[in-house]
Amino acid sequence: MKNYDKLLNDLAPQKFGKKGVIWTISLVVLIVLGIIAYIDQIIRGQVVTNMNDYALWGVYISNFVFFVATSFVGTVTVAVLRLTKNAWRTPIVRIAEIISVSAIIMAGLTITIDMGRPDRLLNLFIHGRMQSPITWDVIIIPTYIMVSLLLLYFPLLPDFGLLNKYYKEKKPTLSKWYGKLSLNWTGSEAQKSIQLKSIHIIAILIVPVGFMLQTIDAWLFSTLFRVGWDSTNMGAYFISGAAVAGVGALVCVVYVLQKAYKLEEYITDFHFDKLGKFLVLTCLIYLYFNLNEYLIPQLTSKKESTTHINVLMEGQFAPLFWFVIIGGLMIPVIILLFKKGRKPFPMFLVSLLVVTGSWWKRYLIVTPTLLHPFLPIQGVPEEWRHYFPSLHEWLITIATLAMSLLIITILVRYVPIIPIQRTADEREELELNKNTEK
Amino acid sequence: MKNKNTDSRRKFLDNGLKLGLITAIGAVGLTKIASKLSAKNSETSTGKMELMTTDGTIIEVDSSEVKQIVHTKITEEYDVREGMPNRKFVMVIDLAKCKNALKCQTACNKQHYITGNHAWLKVYKMQEDEDTAPYWMPTTCMHCDHPACVTVCPVDATFKRRDGLVLIDNERCIGCRFCMAACPYSTRVFNWSEPNQGEITMLMEMEHQTEHNSVEFAGLPSVKGTVDKCDFCPHTIKENELPHCVTACPNGVFYFGDKYEDTVTNGEETLRLSKLLKDKAGYRLMEGLGTKPSVYYLPPVDRLVDFKEGLENFTDYKSVDKPE
Question: Could you give the C-alpha distances from A174 to A95, A157, A426, in angstroms and in order?
């Protein structure tokens, strides 16, 4: 038990400091503002948004797609790194799982914000029809929520067991909770083998489920006729984009937590270096699919696609488009290719760029297409030819982002962000190897 | 050791297959026998019966063979999801005659109590290319036979009827607007706020028996947070009248009719649909998408009117007159 003491002292969830409290309160304030705006939207109808019969989907949908994409981080880091036996993942997997859970829960919530009649939500189950891509979404999102929750929970069992003992005298009520959550974890061989097996099954399971989730999200668009969506590229495009958004978000959160909890001993430059390389890989794959998505239609230059792509490359969306491509993908790749670029602080800045780029990228997938329907836009008010989110939309969207961060914050408060048991095991193994070498 | 293993596995598989096959055959046989047995049991032969066939000859059959058929009741009741039996409504729009008088739109807006900024019926100013002539093109809902909107609706709120109409159950619509995104003709509109249709809402409140989505008020009154669109006026069809746009048009642009009867009429002349489409080279909008619209267009050739005349009425930013 002795070797756990330092680990537990370092890694057991801690009370927030002053900064933590301010952070949490500001998140709550943002959420409350968003809720007020949402209530107003329910009372007055979606007329409070800047959406219209042409721009019929807006920032709510692109924000939803962003959350779905970010939730992919669970699949990509936890499962893929686990199945490929990349040992460096240990101190960051828990954080990835937490982001994943928070993002997918928020994806489920945000989609209802876009509904004109949220009061009829149950119709999706009463009258649900299998041929609609929305029904596929209704099935896959709860599935992914469950699988991600399990992927977060099972590896936590031994840590909850440890925390149960650790807090026994200091905080009996907290300890009791940890004890209950640990499902009577004793650390026996039998328990360990069941736990390992379960984790392995879920890690394999989450790969197809995650891929399905991203693909269905892509199919929400590619099953429609509209130019810019009607593309066979969409499934792979969304999966690779999700990896970028997910890993980008992971780097951000890892950096912030490393600084806030002084975890330099556990999350080292080595880990950032690896994460940086991983981010470069995902960005390059995504750039490849972007090439497919934009350059090939430009080459065949069908009239409608040319209009669409011109609007993006030189029209009203050009600044955003180039910010996303250059700022959100190319510059990060260039910076991260250098060893110095993969140090924690530059990586943090790069990942902020990547995440912002990823968010706006979803906006660019949803909005411009809608503003260029097959028949010309005529006979409607002038302002219906453009779209930019209204104050209500911004307040609500910011609130959903804040809520996602709040979920992460709460989980970080009560769950050890670095797997204690696993770190201990790995260190022991390392010691053992050292001794035998000598 | 390895060989033996695979051998025994193969044997096991072989046996399994055989066993499965036998079970399947056995099961089929058993059900046959069982059905025969039960048939014999139910037989209560009470002698022969004389019947007349359709061509007038008398035949004798065992009375046990005679069964009473329950006639499917042809109800007078109107099922709004089924539509009118044995009809298939189509529309033909003659672009050669349209001069953007916009009477169709005004009538439609009035009759459907449209209060938003969006008309269900639009007249587009079209020009395919700078070298080709401009023309006016009215569009309604295409009431497609392969409606993309119906395919993507998650709750079956928008549906396709046997008589060809695509309608919306706005008591079920959840307002996801997926159908609007799916429609390539941008025909669907959304009630972003409370529609406030005054007269019609009052009327419905007064006549409690008149249900939402009944014939008289297909899809009316509009409901906040749900989708609306052109409904081909089932309330007028039911009364053997033409849709409002057809009767309102001073130039006889719109022809409405039944594909099964092969006739369409604009109120003044009644024409054979098939002949009209052949003679005037009728086409449908965006045929390539495979939506199979029920609305046909006749190309804008040999026009009687100048395109420019229509420009007087053309407002780029307004299609609904609003009381000040």
Answer: 22, 15, 27
Select from A129, A133, A225 the Cβ nearest to the Cβ of B156: A129
Rounded distance between C-alpha atoms, residue A101 and residue A149, angstroms: 6
Task: Tell me the backbone φ, ψ of residue A31, rounded to 5 degrees.
Answer: -65, -45
Global ipTM: 0.90
| Residue B190 · residue A53 · CB < 8 Å | yes
Q: Which of B109, B128, B316 to mutate to test the interface with A (most CBs of A within 10 A)?
A: B316
Q: For the domain made up of A22-420, give the CATH fold.
A: Formate dehydrogenase/DMSO reductase fold (1.20.1630)
The number of beta carbons lying within 10 Å of the beta carbon of residue A200 is 13
CATH 3.30.70.20 fits B89-313, yes or no: yes
Q: B189 touching A, CB under 8 A?
A: yes
Residue-wise pLDDT for B167-221, tens only, equals 999 889 999 999 999 999 999 999 999 988 877 777 766 665 556 656 666 667 8
Neighbouring CB atoms inside 10 A of A326's CB total 13
- Asked if the C-beta of B224 comes within 8 angstroms of chain A's C-beta atoms, the answer is yes
pTM assigned to the model: 0.87
Say if B118 is an interface residue toward chain A (CB within 8 Å). Answer: yes
Chain A contact for B226, CB < 8 A? yes
- Chain B interface includes A86 (CB < 8 A): no
Burial class (CB in 10 A: 0-12, 13-18, 19+), B66: exposed
Which of A380, A384, A386, A390 to mutate to probe the B interface, most B CBs <10 Å? A380
Q: What is the DSSP string of B167-215?
A: EE-TTT-----HHHHH-TT---EE--S----THHHHHHHH-TTS-TTSS
- Give the separation between CA B190 and CA B173, rounded to whole angstroms: 11
Q: What is the DSSP letter of B94?
A: E
Domain map (residue ranges) of chain B: 89-313
| Per-residue pLDDT tens over the stretch A101-143 | 999 999 999 999 999 999 999 999 999 999 999 999 999 999 9
Residue boundaries of the structural domains of chain A: 22-420
